[in-house]
Design brief:
Elements (H helix, E strand, L loop, with lengths): L7 H11 L5 H8 L3 H9 L7 H11 L3 H5 L8 H7 L2 H12 L10 H16 L3 H4 L3 H11 L1 H17 L3 H17 L3 H14 L5 H15 L6 H20 L3 H18 L15 H14 L3 H8 L10 H16 L5 H14 L1 H6 L1 H13 L7 H9 L5
Length: about 400
């Protein structure tokens, strides 16, 4: 791919040309969008703000969403490159566990617990590049114990790999988590592992993810007397709501969101800001997911309205803080008339979780769109610096 294909819009144009010089009008018709919208995407004046649109355009071009996002094809981010060097070792550990290989326990139970706690701490801070090097050894140590311990570490691994862009391996880790939790019939960890599985599926499999969430809800429901299980049921409802929105099942999405909201109102926000497995389920997290679902539905005004009542600081997970600012920034930038406020939101998103922000292709695309719109004017220093950190050439 040519070096200049460094945005979703330029990649769309690249693949359109590869498809026999397909016209913008034909692509628009196949994807169910307008020709002017395709033109604005390719010129960088607009960014793709809905997952369903990405899926439709990728399908029309006969490529994957990852192809359009450039995931795995653009080296150069130091954090991802350092973490990527550990991925073959993580993959090897996952293969060993899937094949039933187990090493004798190394170290004491307290030492293993301390290592897992460190992993939880890094996950809470969204420091996935720092997590990656510790995972191969931690996976093997947890496999020697099995049960909830392995489910916990495999969950951490799945979360880390997914946020670093290795979704296919994240799915492998999630499957290991599910098997480990089912071995000991722990409904809370089964719910957590099932949630990791739905989160790891590619965007193109949103319908499958929604069905998987529905099956998981039925499987875990019997343990609802346990507060930990209720928190995971709520998370599964939120996952089902978002994936239903991506597939256009708006009423189903709202039903799942309403179920999650009812459970959250009863449980309240976790006193420690984390809750079981750091999921943070409660009214605040429901509000954050509602913002993401509104963004997926193209309801930018609704995102801005919700942002006035949601207070992400009550949760400890940095990735949830970033979600708030990122969804708000994309909603503010959608009209093209509030770029200054959008930029301020993106800066806050980067501060909340620097590594995931740098690796988030949709964040990058939104900043690219703002830079294109400001080229006729003086580019603010803050935008110039943010663009530079994301590798965007002005």
């Amino acid at each position: 791919m040519p070096e200049k294909a460094d945005s979703v819009g330029s990649r769309i144009r690249y693949w359109r040309m590869r498809r026999g010089g397909m016209s913008q009008g034909v692509l628009a018709g196949l994807a169910g969008v307008s020709q002017p919208y395709i033109s604005q995407l390719e010129s960088g004046r607009k960014s793709v703000d809905r997952r369903s649109t990405l899926v439709a355009i990728a399908s029309a071009l006969q490529v994957t969403v990852a192809d359009l996002l450039g995931q795995g094809t653009e080296p150069g981010d130091p954090a991802r490159d350092r973490a990527g060097a550990c991925v073959p070792q993580i993959w090897s550990a996952l293969i060993e566990i899937e094949d039933g290989e187990r090493q004798p326990p190394a170290g004491s139970a307290d030492e293993l617990a301390a290592r897992i706690a460190r992993g939880d701490q890094l996950r809470a801070g969204a420091n996935y590049p720092a997590m990656a090097p510790m995972l191969p050894g931690l996976l093997r140590a947890a496999a020697a114990v099995g049960g909830a311990t392995l489910a916990h570490v495999a969950y951490l691994t799945s979360t880390c790999l997914r946020n670093l862009g290795y979704r296919h391996l994240a799915l492998n880790a999630a499957r290991i988590a599910v098997a480990a939790a089912e071995d000991v019939e722990d409904p809370a960890w089964i719910g957590a592992a099932r949630f990791a599985y739905t989160q790891s599926l590619p965007i193109e499999s949103a319908a499958l993810a929604a069905r998987a969430a529905d099956r998981s809800l039925a499987e875990v429901q019997a343990g609802a007397a346990d507060e930990r299980v209720r928190q995971m049921l709520g998370q599964l409802h939120l996952s089902a709501a978002l994936t239903s929105a991506v597939t256009g099942r708006v009423d189903t999405a709202r039903d799942h969101l309403a179920e999650a909201a009812r459970d959250a109102a009863d449980l309240g926000d976790p006193a420690d800001g984390a809750g079981f497995n750091g999921c943070g389920f409660g009214p605040t997290n429901v509000g954050l997911w509602e913002m993401s679902i509104a963004a997926e539905m193209g309801e930018h005004g609704r995102v801005i309205e919700l942002s006035r009542t949601v207070r992400p600081h009550v949760l400890v997970a940095a990735i949830r803080h970033q979600s708030y600012w990122l969804d708000l920034g994309r909603a503010l930038s959608a009209s093209g008339r509030r770029d200054g406020e959008a930029l301020a939101a993106f800066v806050q998103a980067e501060r909340a979780a620097p590594a995931p922000f740098a690796l988030n292709p949709l964040a990058r695309e939104a900043v690219v769109a703002i830079t294109h719109r400001t080229r006729r004017r003086a580019v603010p220093d803050e935008l110039r610096m943010l663009a530079g950190r994301l590798g965007i050439r002005l």
